[in-house]
Amino acid sequence: MTGIVRELRPKPPDTEKITINLGYVDLGHVDLMVAEGFYSNRSDFIRTAIRNQLERHAEVVKQSTARKSLDLGLRNYSRQDLEAVQRSGEMLHINVLGLASISQDVTPELARATISSVCVLGALHASPAVRAALSDRTR
């Protein structure tokens, strides 16, 4: 008996790809650290450096997060969530530090009717149509 596994909702990626430019000397230093076995690859070095800087400034980040009323981590907005907001006659102010995700079944019209502003420090996953509909409300 073989079971059929269906994915009800696609899992969002755990990481976001970024691109950085480094000078040749800095890049050489990174490659040297990798060659000497301190790091497994360039990405490992860069992730570690970023984590160290975030840890170094953790208190400032914590204070800023509280001051700006940011939701921390992953925040998903489903069609049902937005329909409930619409029924209540209110508007959402999306403020997320991490990943904000608007479900693929949310229409641009529903998004505009329920989302007043979008401020995401990290990544926003939404359909191209919803992104376009909210472009004047996104900082």
Automatic annotation (TrEMBL):
> In terms of domain of life, where is this protein from?
Bacteria
> Which InterPro entries does the annotation name?
Arc_rbn_hlx_hlx (IPR013321), RHH_8 (IPR041088), Ribbon_hlx_hlx (IPR010985)
Gene Ontology biological-process annotations: regulation of DNA-templated transcription
PANTHER family for this protein: BLL4998 PROTEIN
Protein known as: CopG family transcriptional regulator
